Each structure stands twice: as C-alpha cells, then as structure tokens.
Protein: VRR-NUC domain-containing protein
Amino acid sequence: MNRRSTPEADIQRAIVQALRFALPRDAIVHHCANEVTEAGPRGARRQAILVGMGVHAGFADLIVISGGRVLFLEVKSPTGRLRKSQEVFRDTVGAQGFGWALVRSVDDALGALADHGFTSRVQLPARRVAP
Structure:
C-alpha cells in the first residue's frame, strides 16, 4: 500500500521529535487536532461536534509551553500558505503577548524557540528574522 504524501505531517513529526529533545524535560509540546479530514456528511457532523467542544478556527498546529513561556507554531510545507483564519489567530495571540511563528523545518522551529527566549538543553541556532 502506498502512503499518501503528507509533507506538512512529516515536517511536524520531525519538529516534535526535535523539540522534545531540545527542550527541558518538563516542557510541553502539544498538537491540537483541530479539524476533521473526513469528507461528506459524517465529517461535517464530526467537525460540528469539535467546534462545539471548543475547536478554534485557525488554531496553531503546535503549542510549546516551557519556562513560563508559550509559543504557538504553525507548520507549513515549503510552499504552504496561511489561511485567513490562521492569520487572524496569529494576530490575536500576538496582540495578547504570546509568541507565534510560521515554521517550515526543524531549523525554523529551533530558531523560533531562540527568537522567543526559550531555554534549551542544546545549543539553539542564532536568532533570525521571523518568517
């Protein structure tokens, strides 16, 4: 059986593995399953249930909590673009003082940690301009 290409999921798995290695052991790296990928009426019903349970449109793929800091990471493939709801989420959490970053690789994610002042068990890349 051929596995369908999932570039964002593959990137996200690599990022989660790197963050779990780099961050202190008590750090939390969490993915919020935010949408149903099942088409049709059954998928629409399931999505409606999730929205009723608190799913928020545009919510970031990963939340990193460590050392009193919170960082939201939106994972995209090299060619992926933000949806409008993701831009609104980015602007909303930024206005509330939380960190947010668009990441397309492990290096981007580690750089985002450094940009937002996270401490690490490994040497993080030098600060960079956020994408």
In short: The CA atoms of residues 67 and 118 lie 7 Å apart. The chain has one domain: 7-116. The helical segments are 7-22, 40-52, 84-95, 106-115. The chain has a mean pLDDT of 87.
